[in-house]
Amino acid sequence: MRMKTILFAFCNLMIIQQAYADSDLLMTSDKPFVISYPDTPLPVEKTAAEELSKYINLSTGARTEIINESKLQKKDAADAYIGQCNYTKGQDFYVNKFKQEGFNIAVNNGRLFIYGDDSKGDAFSQSTRTGTLFGVYDFLEKELGIAWIWPGKSGEDVPAVKELHIKSFSRIDFPKYCIRSVMINEGAELKYWLKKMKLSWVPGAWFGHSWDSYVFKTGMDKEHPEWLALRNGERRKPHCCTANKEFRDYMVDRCLNSPGNKGKSIVSISPSDGYGFCECEKCHALDPQGTDYKTSIPNLSNRHWDYANYIAREVKKKNPDLNIGMFAYTAYAKPPTNIDKFEDNLYISFTFSAGYFVKPEMKEDIYKRIDEWKSKGIKIVGREYWGMHYWLELPYVFTAQIKDSMPYLYKRGLVAMYGEAHSNFATQGPVYYLVAHMMWDPETNADKVMERYYKAFGPASEYIRNYYDTFEKAIIENQGKIESFAYLGLINSWPEIFPEKTIAKAGEFLKKAEDAVKGNPVYEERVKCIGIGYEYTKVMIELLAVYRKLGRAGVPLWCFGYQGALAEASHYKLAEMPEAWKEFWSKHPDEPLDKSEKIKLLKRALELGNAREKIIYGQDGLPAISKGMYEYTLKTGMRPWHRTVKEELAKEGIKAE
Fold first, then answer.
1. Which residues belong to CATH 3.30.379.10 in the chain?
2. Rounded distance, CA 110 to CA 124, Å?
3. Would you say 364 and 341 are in contact if contact means Cβ atoms under 8 Å apart?
4. What is the CATH number of domain 20-174?
5. In angstroms, rounded to a whole number, what is the distance separating the alpha carbons of residues 234 and 576?
6. Which of 82, 266, 451, 470 could be stapled to 323 by a disulfide with Cβ–Cβ 3.0 to 4.6 Å?
7. Which one, of 615, 482, 464, 480, lies nearest residue 537 by Cα?
8. Do residues 529 and 150 make contact, with C-beta atoms less than 8 angstroms apart?
9. What tens digit of pLDDT does each residue of 303-358 get?
């Protein structure tokens, strides 16, 4: 019996030893981990080795050493080979060609190999190909379980691992979209987070409003006033006459010869933002018969896409490798009826938001339009709005719509995706985290992505999930109260989208989260970031409701009443109020207040406006709520809500403080 016991124990020991022999890579805190990279590395290869070293040390506690390949005592002396090392090139699994920004991660014979499609340049630039660095972040995320839920140290979730044991494997991966960008322009740590999310804008592509660069800044509008849009009998900005052949030929020349287009593979011919489209006979002749020019957004696709197709065709004659890009946007968002097939060098930047898909009819309309565009042979780049200024930094969370739409859009042929966002990770964090992962692979398991996001809150993970779910469910339940997703319609709907009961319920989950993380400074700081977003939301929802009452009582608050519309039209020196504004305010007439109630509301608006500013400028370095858009409104005089309240109080002899 004793002999059987000894034999059984010996067999178990052999099984354990065999298990460790079969798993090829071992990291422990008591063993140095040597990382090697090429002798003349690209910046991305050196950075990738440094990032791997940093996070292995943080995760396992292992002491790491980074050594040039030629300084190794033996060619196989390193534990990890990063970039195009000579030793890597001699391995059976080695491949020397990748799709754009692709990488290979392999664990073989007890060693880790990571290399990929790289280019020269700053490793943290969005235009540099960084396949090796993406491979390192992919390894850290999938094998070490690390997550970066927002920029900066507070968003860095690094599980402690005493011993990491990884079996042999090889994984080649690459992004499914050639452009993947969450366009945030705020925060010193942002560029590092974008790379960790494997986001980039490698192709030289530009889709933005182009006429300012080509026409107005060059003075061509003064030299050729006949190129400008005809409005009420006058030629004026911001739009041009897209039917004017001389203007079209000038745009062809700018695509080919503008210094700003040098090195780009896709160059923009997009019209200016806003309204004020041409009313000349030539433009009208291209529009569909019966076009209603008095509606808020008339369908002017035929004229605009005839312009685009002409330019694409003429550019291709002179430079077959140059592609043309243009927004499918506002009055030219729909496919034209006068073009069956587009030139093969024309890309559209299709503007939409999955956030609109809370309304089933809007989702159906967008999907239908995408199919119609594809039937005409055009290449589609998705241009999203994930954290746009219409949201006012509020928690407009729509992860369910993202999970549903991203795989569908990819299957329908989108080739790239990018979108607006703000540095408001307290309110939009789950949206940004999810879209970043799904732009790399639109068919990834979205539920697992979100599970990892919430895991970063430790013992508060379920409470934070419930907190965001409260807002997301309220959006679905109250989508019928969103009058429209135009700016006027949306900002006048926020108090109904997030009623008091929603705010209170979310607050209960946040309190439970705060209690759950007490005593743990790492989790406390993350929950604190979410709390800043909650306080902002509470203040902003009440403030918008007060602005609405004041605006409809005659206070000239832009977007909240007819007097505000007049003030805005005057600020922009509009010859007449846009039809869309007239239509909106005819449905929402003034509702007078007596003087005492008006003063009371003005005082409350002042208090709430001050509280909003205090939150925006008092975030303790956390990326909770964006300052950028608020500061832009102050700088430009756009939507001067807080200033207007102070001015109205001053009229009543009340000093605003």
1. 20-174
2. 30
3. no
4. 3.30.379.10
5. 14
6. 266
7. 615
8. yes
9. 999 999 999 999 999 999 999 999 999 999 999 999 999 999 999 999 999 999 99
